[in-house]
Design a protein that fits this description.
The chain is α+β, with helices and mostly antiparallel strands. The protein contains two helices and six strands; from the N terminus they run βαββββαβ. The strands form two sheets. Strands 2-5-1-6 form a four-stranded antiparallel beta sheet, with helices on one face. The chain has a two-stranded antiparallel sheet with strand order 3-4. It starts with a strand and ends in a 17-residue tail after the last strand.
């Protein structure tokens, strides 16, 4: 099993969710987060004063999938979240040792 974590622009969340649903992803977790990368934040103006915003709003999505589904999920996220502009985000894939469905006690792939 794999855990896929992606940091994307907030306005892309619904589009990514729909694209993943089309390929059979049955669930994901989305969290509003703040961070910075190569963008290094941005400069805002408020009442004539400029100030630096060093942490930009992003959305972190986490999806647990079977090994055979991981590449397809990554491709869907990559293609859907891409705007071609700086700050589109990152995708991280790591191994998931175990998953357990609390309600039924199912373990492993069937718990996903």
């Amino acid at each position: 099993m794999k855990m896929i974590m992606a940091i994307i622009k907030p306005f892309k969340l619904d589009e990514v969710r729909e694209a993943l649903t089309e390929i059979g992803v049955e669930g994901l977790t989305a969290t509003e987060v703040r961070g910075f990368g190569r963008q290094k934040g941005q400069t805002e103006s408020y009442r004539g004063e400029e100030y630096a915003v060093s942490f930009l709003p992003k959305v972190k999505i986490e999806i647990a999938v079977t090994d055979d589904k991981a590449d397809e999920v990554v491709e869907r996220i990559k293609n859907t979240a891409n705007t071609g502009r700086i700050g589109d985000g990152k995708i991280f894939v790591y191994s998931l040792n175990r998953a357990i469905r609390i309600r039924t006690g199912e373990d492993g792939d069937v718990a996903l």
